[in-house]
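2.7 Reproducibility. Because tokenized structures are sensitive to small changes in the input, we list the exact sequence used for SAM domain-containing protein, including any N-terminal residues retained from the expression construct. No trimming or masking was applied before prediction.
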Amino acid sequence: MARYPCSGECRCGCHPLVVPRSQRWHEKEVGNWIQKLGFPQYKDCFISNRITGRKLIFVNCSTLPRIGLTDFEHMKVISHEIQKLLDIEEPLWSRSISKPHRDPMGLFLERKAPTGRRADALTLEEFLKEMDE
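Resulting structure tokens (single pass, no recycling of outputs):
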């Protein structure tokens, strides 16, 4: 995950937000990535549960047991690697409730996760403009 002097939630323009290439991955590409991480035993879990690159935003230590992962140490590693892949940060437990529940990229990826024309058509630029309004 990239680190910037103004924090990961920066909107000052000191670093560009770029949509991760993994957003275009199909289930098999996600499975191959999991295998390359060193977890070949979970490749089929991701494929059979139809986890695409767009769905990775929802995969974390809370959701991994639902698709068959039970080793907590493995879940922590996979969750951390997903955050790095998507260049997102999990919010601190101490964050103010007046702030959005995620960083801008995380919020965008959540909006892009569903399938359909509306989600497909949404661009990062449009989303950031919406956030500013």
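The chain has one domain: 21-132.
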